[in-house]
Structure to design on (219 residues):
């Protein structure tokens, strides 16, 4: 009898521990799409209505570039201007730190939109080596639109963004990087049934209506 009670008790405790561990494990949605596809815009809207934290790899890299004393400032700056993908050791550390800080401040904040990552094979390998077992990758939210729409939106954004890469020359390189390095990553996840595609060529609210129904379905 005592053993039965102890057995039930320990199962209950281990279930609770298991649930707690599961609750603590970050849940991740990778957000991908061409430069200017609207990833950041849609992520901001998602955050308003759902309990997700938005982490943009590009924003984190730009912040690191501007951080006084950063040993990577110059390297990041030249990669961004060239539309190249920064070595994953740098990016994954920034992402991991941001996730840890978010979860330390508020344990309920364990759902993340990771925007603009993984952008190439190196990013993917870095994630798989360091984070795959630490986080649950739920799916990839893919904002799909033509290169021309991407370029037009970035040029328009460039009028006020102050970004060193929202110009024709950098954009040509960014589109090349997207086609050569990022599309194959999206295709890889597509084969695993992980990609949820949204037509991003329409206006912001139409795109968001699709995003909402998709997120509501995924739970
Ligand atoms: P990304 O993060 O994918 O590079 P942004 O969200 O920064 O893209 O959007 C790029 C530019 O296009 C911004 O100036 C933004 O206001 C604008 N934009 C975003 N989504 C749309 C849309 N659906 N239709 C028109 N313009 C958009
Ligand atoms: O996503 P965003 O447009 O902000 O990215 C801007 C630039 O930041 C990219 O063109 C690239 O140079 C760099 N970046 C990167 N690795 C990532 C995301 C962004 O090197 N995973
Ligand atoms: Mg962005």
């Amino acid at each position: 009898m005592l053993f039965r009670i102890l057995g039930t008790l320990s199962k209950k405790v281990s279930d609770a521990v298991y649930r707690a561990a599961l609750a603590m494990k970050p849940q991740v949605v990778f957000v991908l799409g061409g430069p200017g596809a609207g990833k950041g815009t849609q992520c901001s809207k998602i955050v308003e209505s759902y309990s997700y934290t938005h982490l943009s790899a590009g924003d984190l890299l730009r912040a690191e570039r501007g951080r006084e004393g950063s040993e990577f400032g110059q390297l990041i700056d030249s990669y961004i201007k060239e539309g190249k993908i920064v070595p994953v050791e740098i990016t994954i550390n920034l992402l991991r730190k941001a996730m840890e800080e978010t979860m330390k401040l508020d344990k309920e904040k364990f759902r993340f939109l990771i925007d603009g990552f993984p952008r190439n094979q190196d990013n993917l390998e870095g994630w798989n080596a360091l984070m795959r077992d630490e986080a649950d990758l739920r799916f990839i939210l893919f904002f799909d639109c033509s290169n021309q729409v991407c370029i037009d939106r970035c040029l328009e954004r460039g009028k006020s963004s102050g970004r060193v890469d929202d110009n024709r020359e950098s954009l040509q390189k960014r589109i090349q990087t997207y086609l050569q390095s990022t599309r194959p990553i999206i295709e890889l996840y597509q084969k695993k049934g992980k990609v949820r595609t949204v037509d991003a060529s329409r206006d912001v609210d139409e795109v968001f209506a699709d995003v909402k129904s998709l997120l509501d379905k995924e739970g």
